[in-house]
């Protein structure tokens, strides 16, 4: 059976998402970071990392920041996966304490896939941080 690029993109995206959610839960990001290309880019909608960010080192800084903000970890409930030949989008709800305060949100992350790596990440969210 010949694997299509869309199938490969979905499989790589799902593997990366599993490592991503593990990072959110535990603060252990190395398995996810190992899946990133050297020229990895990511886009984040707010704060210190707002806008386009470039490079694996910047990504490490970002995910370390996430782990500090959610030092007890986040629980993720996956709602939907959408994919095409290049991108996999995961829609999910996450919750856990953020700096000691209750946090809940709805999030969509898009992973762009190149071969067996993630070359780009975009995150979108929009609830009030207390409901989902």
Structure report:
Helix content is 30%, strand content 43%. It has 132 residues and is α+β, with helices and mostly antiparallel strands. The chain has one domain (5-125): Nuclear Transport Factor 2, Chain: A. Strand 3 and strand 4 (87-98) form a beta hairpin. 19% of the residues are buried.
What's the gist of this structure?
By secondary structure, the chain is of the alpha+beta class. The chain has helices at residues 5-26, 30-33, 56-69, and strands spanning 36-44, 51-54, 75-83, 87-98, 101-114, 117-125.
List the helices and strands and how they pair.
Blueprint: H1 5-26, H2 30-33, E1 36-44, E2 51-54, H3 56-69, E3 75-83, E4 87-98, E5 101-114, E6 117-125
Largest sheet: 6 strands, mixed
Number of domains: 1
* Helix amount: 25-40%
Q: How confident is the prediction overall: mean pLDDT?
A: 92
CATH class: Alpha Beta
Helix/sheet category: alpha+beta
User: How much of the residues is beta strand, in percent?
Assistant: 35-45%
Gross morphology is globular
What key phrases describe this protein's structure?
alpha+beta, Nuclear Transport Factor 2, Chain: A, 132 residues, six-stranded mixed β-sheet
